[in-house]
Amino acid sequence: MAVALRGRRTPMKAALLDQSTVAGLGNIYVCEILFRSGISPRRRASSVAGKSGVTKRVERVTAATHDVIVEAIDAGGSSISDFVNVEGDLGYFQNSTFVYGRESEPCLSEGCDASIQRIVQSGRSTFYCPNCQR
Questions:
Q1: Contact 32, 72 (CB under 8 A)
Q2: Does any domain span residue 14?
């Protein structure tokens, strides 16, 4: 992850959606990963990796990526429109998100009184907490 982010001037949201960084991450998962790691979707990817590569931020993003993917698999994936798994079942991960699809709702982090914000990046909706994500 650190190698893929180092030197990239693109925002973290775009960097994580880039399939050459981490294959398989979609919009819902990236919004949740960035929230859980406390990283703003607008933050430059190179500032997360730093000059040396592996930083606390990279470790948080890596851990959050693992956690979100495991939880999404356990929930059967995400079904926003017409996704079904091989058995024809809907996924339910989108029903347990902290930020995705929650524009103007209160942040779920303990002690945070901010509302979830929505911005558009590269034509995609991005949901984040302006207080928890820096």
A1: no
A2: yes
CA distance 79 to 121: 22
Helices 27-37 and 56-74: crossing angle, nearest 10°? 130
Give the pLDDT confidence of 45-83 residue by residue, as tens digits.
999 998 877 799 999 999 999 999 998 877 776 655 555
Q: Which of 46, 59, 53 is nearest to 2 (CA)?
A: 53
Host domain of residue 44:
2-71+97-128
**Contact criterion met (CB below 8 Å) for 39 and 61:** yes
On whether residue 133 sits in a domain, the answer given is no
What CATH number is attached to the domain comprising 110?
1.10.8.50
pLDDT per position as a tens digit, 19-44: 999 898 999 999 999 999 999 999 99
Residues 6+ apart with CB under 8 A from 74: none
Q: Give the predicted TM-score (pTM) of the model.
A: 0.88
